[in-house]
Specification:
Methylamine Dehydrogenase, Chain H, mainly beta, 50% strand, 4-stranded antiparallel β-sheet, WD40_rpt, WD40_repeat_dom_sf
Length: 324
């Protein structure tokens, strides 16, 4: 299978790429307020919707509906109508930017984190959201910069103060865990480990942390550094079968890691600008790569934004056999 660039490409900086549960569709959210939906394998544009504000995060739920979080603070539900258009409903709002969005399975809640220093939970149903009142709203120590679901009922939150918090969405009044990140610089992303035992986090200092909830065996490692230049690590995505993970950095590269063996498995050739977001296809045979400048060097001329569907083989992602 050859590499495929989605066509047409997004017209502004890409904030999130994400697959539907079936892998048939790929969403690409952008700073221009548009979410494009492409064929998840072929890369052909199928439809699009406009949010009317820069989209900072977006996700499919298990039945293919799209939820978005925007710079203006709004949290929206987008449902595909029979005529191919999207019906958009406001289900909640933050007082400042809604930076992160995650969907828990049991109970099903749309959780969002904002620059207003709150974690909120919303009913994922427009008919029940007419008052736009959150199921819960919890203050956290700093603006929310990163979030990830963990084990179906838990929510990880990373803040501007480098605090990591773990909430149970069934009883979120107090965090089950709160501690300072092992990373010494600003957090860029956080992703729960597939077995629920901990999480990975990445920062602007060209470093990734693998932290266990019990604190035992946690460590950090350097990555995405070129000729002594240190680049932010913008994205992490776990392979659905092997549970190794890919990282994407502002150096324009994608690497695949075996966190258990503490080894790099694959280092793909660099792209011509930053990698802003990553997502493995549910079957694990493709990796969606957003090649999109993330302004780590300020406002300057940069290559056009684009998204690649990259074929993945077992050799690219299979864990390394550890020697006895």
């Amino acid at each position: 299978m050859a590499e495929t660039w989605v066509d047409p490409p997004p017209l502004d900086g890409v904030t999130r790429v994400g697959y539907s549960l079936s892998g048939e569709d790929l969403l690409v959210a952008s700073w221009n307020g548009r979410i494009n939906i492409y064929d998840g394998v072929g890369g052909r544009l199928k439809s699009h919707l406009n949010v009317n504000a820069p989209v900072l995060d977006a996700s499919f739920d298990e039945v293919g509906r799209i939820f978005s979080a925007a710079l203006g603070g709004n949290v929206m539900l987008h449902t595909l109508a029979p005529d191919g258009s999207f019906k958009s409903d406001l289900i909640g709002a933050h007082d400042q930017a809604a930076r992160c969005l995650e969907i828990t399975r049991d109970p099903k809640i749309v959780a969002t984190g904002g620059w207003d220093e709150t974690l909120c939970g919303w009913t994922p149903d427009s008919s029940a959201s007419s008052q736009r009142k959150p199921l819960f709203s919890v203050k956290v120590p700093g603006r929310v910069f990163a979030m990830s679901s963990l084990g179906g009922t838990k929510m990880l939150v990373g803040t501007s103060n480098r605090e990591i918090l773990l909430f149970d969405v069934r009883n979120p009044s107090q965090p089950e865990l709160q501690r300072e990140s092992l990373l010494k610089n600003q957090l860029r992303c956080i992703v729960g480990l597939p077995d629920g035992s901990g999480f990975t986090a990445a920062s602007t200092e060209g470093r990734v942390a693998i932290e266990n909830l019990d604190g035992v065996g946690s460590y950090t490692f350097k990555c995405h550094r070129v000729d002594n230049r240190i680049y932010p690590v913008n994205a992490i995505s776990f392979h659905p079968h092997w549970h190794t993970f890919a990282t994407g950095g502002a150096d324009g590269s994608v690497c695949v890691w075996d966190g258990t063996a503490k080894k790099r498995i694959r280092h793909y050739p660099r792209y011509d600008t930053s990698v802003s977001s990553l997502a493995f296809h549910p079957k694990g045979d493709l990796l969606a790569v957003a090649v999109s400048y993330t302004f780590e060097e300020g406002d300057k001329a940069h290559p056009e934004d684009k998204v690649l569907l990259k074929p993945v083989t077992d050799a690219d992602v299979q864990p390394r056999i550890r020697k006895s």
